[in-house]
C-alpha cells in the first residue's frame, strides 16, 4: 500500500506524565525550592531591618519594598508566559536567575531604604521569571491528568524553602546581626540554582506542542491572541477569572503576613528566634500541606478546596488579629498556612484544566499577574489601614475581604477538573 493511503497516525512526540519525566520533574522541584529560598531570606529579617536600621515608623513607608516586589513580579509573570511561548522555557528561567545575582549584594550594602526597594524590584523580576517558568515546565511534563499533584509538589518545594530559610535567617540574625549573614544564604541559593538550570534543565516547550496536537478542544480553541487570553483569564471566563481574584486576595494575605506580622510580634516582646519560628510556621504548613491538597484536588475537584481554603484563611486572620500570645499566633499561623495550602496549587491546576495547551503558558502568566498583584495591593492596603487603625484593625479588614472572596468563588466558579466536568456549564471551555 502506498504511503499516501495509510491511516494517519497519532502524532509522535515527547512522552507526557510524571513517571515518564520523573528525573526532569524532580530537578525542577529542586530548582523551584532554590527560587523560594531566595524569597525566604527576606521574610524574617527585612521588616525588622526597616524598623531598626532605617527607622521607618510609618507602616505604609515600611511596606514599599513589598509593593515594589509585588508590582514587578505581577507584570513579569505576564511576560514570562508570553516569552516562554515565543522563545522557550529554559531561556526565561536562566534570565530569572541572572537578574537575581545583585539582590543579596544590594541588601547587604544598602545605605538607604531606596536600595532595599531597588533590590526588591529585581527580586520581583527573578521570582516572576523563574517561579512562573518552573510552574509552566511542570505542567508541560505531566500532561492533563496529574496537574494537582504536580502543582502541589512544585508549590510545596518553593514554600517549604521559604519557611526553612525564614527560620534559618532568624537564627543567623540573632547570632550575627541583621546583615550580612542572612543574605549570604540567598547568594548561595542563586549560585546553585543558576548552575543547575544551565547544566541540567532541559527545554519542555515540545511537550506542550505535543499535547496541543492531541488536545480535545473545548469552546476556547488554541488560536487565541494574547489580548483574548488576558480578557478570558481576567473577567470573561467564570472559572479562570474566579481563580484570578482568589489568587489576588490570597497573596494580599501573604503580603500582610510578610510585612506586618513580624512587627506585631516584635512589639509584643517576642525574641528574634521566636519571631523566626512564627514567620516560618505559616509557609511551612503551607508548603507541607500542598503535598496533600494538590493530589486531593485531582480526586475531589478544585472548587471545594478553593472555597474552603479561603474561608479557613479568613478565620485564621481573625485569630491572629485577636491573639496576644505566642500560642494563639502560632495556631493562627498554622491555620493560615493550611488554608493557603488548600488554595494555592489548586488554583494553578484549575488554570491548567481550562486553558488550551497552545495558550496555557500565557494563561498561567495572566493568572500570576493578578495573583501576585496581591502583594502590591496588600502592601498598600495593609500599610494604609495599619497607619489608620493599627495592625490588628488592618488584619480584621483583610479577614473580611478574604471571606468575601471565598463566597464569590462558591457562587461564580464551576468545577474544572476533567473527572468532574458534570458541574461545568454549557459552553464553558
UniProtKB/TrEMBL annotation:
Alphabetically ordered keywords of this record: Cell membrane, Membrane, Transmembrane, Transmembrane helix, Transport
Species of origin: Micromonospora echinaurantiaca
Transmembrane segments: 21-39, 59-80, 92-109, 115-136, 157-177, 183-201, 305-323, 329-352, 396-414
Official protein name in the record: Predicted arabinose efflux permease, MFS family
Pfam family, one: MFS_1
InterPro entries with a match to the protein in the record: MFS (IPR011701), MFS_dom (IPR020846), MFS_trans_sf (IPR036259), MFS_Transporters (IPR050171), Sugar_transporter_CS (IPR005829)
Entry keyword annotation includes Transport: yes
Gene Ontology CC terms, in alphabetical order: plasma membrane
Signal sequence interval, chain numbering: none
Statement: the UniProt record of this protein carries the keyword Nucleotide-binding: no
Chief localization: membrane
Subcellular location: Cell membrane
Amino acid at each position: 500500500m502506498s504511503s499516501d493511503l495509510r491511516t494517519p497516525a497519532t502524532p509522535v512526540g515527547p512522552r507526557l506524565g510524571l513517571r515518564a519525566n520523573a528525573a526532569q520533574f524532580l530537578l525542577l522541584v529542586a530548582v523551584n525550592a532554590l527560587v523560594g529560598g531566595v524569597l525566604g531570606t527576606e521574610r524574617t529579617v527585612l521588616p525588622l531591618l526597616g524598623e531598626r536600621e532605617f527607622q521607618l515608623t510609618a507602616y505604609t513607608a515600611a511596606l514599599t519594598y513589598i509593593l515594589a516586589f509585588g508590582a514587578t513580579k505581577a507584570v513579569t509573570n505576564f511576560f514570562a508566559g508570553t516569552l516562554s511561548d515565543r522563545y522557550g522555557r529554559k531561556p526565561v528561567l536562566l534570565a530569572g536567575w541572572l537578574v537575581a545575582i545583585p539582590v543579596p549584594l544590594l541588601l547587604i550594602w544598602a545605605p538607604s531604604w531606596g536600595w532595599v526597594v531597588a533590590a526588591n524590584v529585581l527580586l520581583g523580576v527573578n521570582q516572576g521569571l523563574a517561579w512562573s517558568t518552573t510552574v509552566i515546565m511542570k505542567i508541560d511534563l505531566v500532561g492533563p491528568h496529574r496537574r494537582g499533584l504536580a502543582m502541589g509538589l512544585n508549590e510545596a518545594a518553593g514554600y517549604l524553602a521559604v519557611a526553612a530559610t525564614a527560620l534559618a535567617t532568624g537564627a543567623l540574625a540573632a547570632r550575627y546581626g541583621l546583615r550580612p549573614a542572612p543574605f549570604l544564604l540567598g547568594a548561595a541559593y542563586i549560585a546553585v540554582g543558576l548552575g543547575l538550570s544551565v547544566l541540567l534543565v532541559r527545554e519542555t516547550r515540545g511537550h506542550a506542542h505535543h499535547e496541543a496536537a492531541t488536545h480535545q478542544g473545548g469552546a476556547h480553541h488554541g488560536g487565541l491572541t494574547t489580548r483574548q487570553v488576558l480578557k478570558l483569564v481576567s473577567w470573561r471566563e467564570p472559572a479562570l477569572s474566579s481563580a484570578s481574584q482568589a489568587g489576588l486576595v490570597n497573596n494580599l494575605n501573604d503580603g500582610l503576613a510578610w510585612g506586618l506580622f513580624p512587627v506585631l510580634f516584635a512589639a509584643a516582646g517576642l525574641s528574634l528566634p521566636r519571631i523566626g519560628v512564627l514567620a516560618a510556621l505559616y509557609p511551612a504548613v503551607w508548603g507541607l500541606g500542598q503535598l496533600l491538597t494538590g493530589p486531593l484536588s485531582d480526586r475531589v475537584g478544585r472548587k471545594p478546596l478553593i472555597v474552603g481554603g479561603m474561608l479557613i484563611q479568613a478565620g485564621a486572620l481573625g485569630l491572629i488579629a485577636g491573639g496576644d500570645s505566642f500560642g494563639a499566633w502560632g495556631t493562627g499561623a498554622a491555620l493560615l498556612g493550611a488554608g493557603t495550602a488548600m488554595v494555592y496549587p489548586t488554583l494553578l491546576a484549575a488554570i491548567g484544566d481550562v486553558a488550551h495547551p497552545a495558550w496555557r503558558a500565557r494563561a498561567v502568566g495572566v493568572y500570576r499577574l493578578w495573583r501576585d498583584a496581591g502583594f502590591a495591593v496588600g502592601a498598600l492596603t495593609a500599610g494604609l489601614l495599619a497607619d489608620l487603625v493599627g495592625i490588628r484593625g488592618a488584619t480584621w479588614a483583610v479577614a473580611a475581604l478574604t471571606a468575601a472572596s471565598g463566597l464569590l468563588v462558591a457562587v461564580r466558579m464551576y468545577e474544572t477538573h476533567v473527572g468532574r466536568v458534570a458541574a461545568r456549564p454549557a459552553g464553558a471551555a
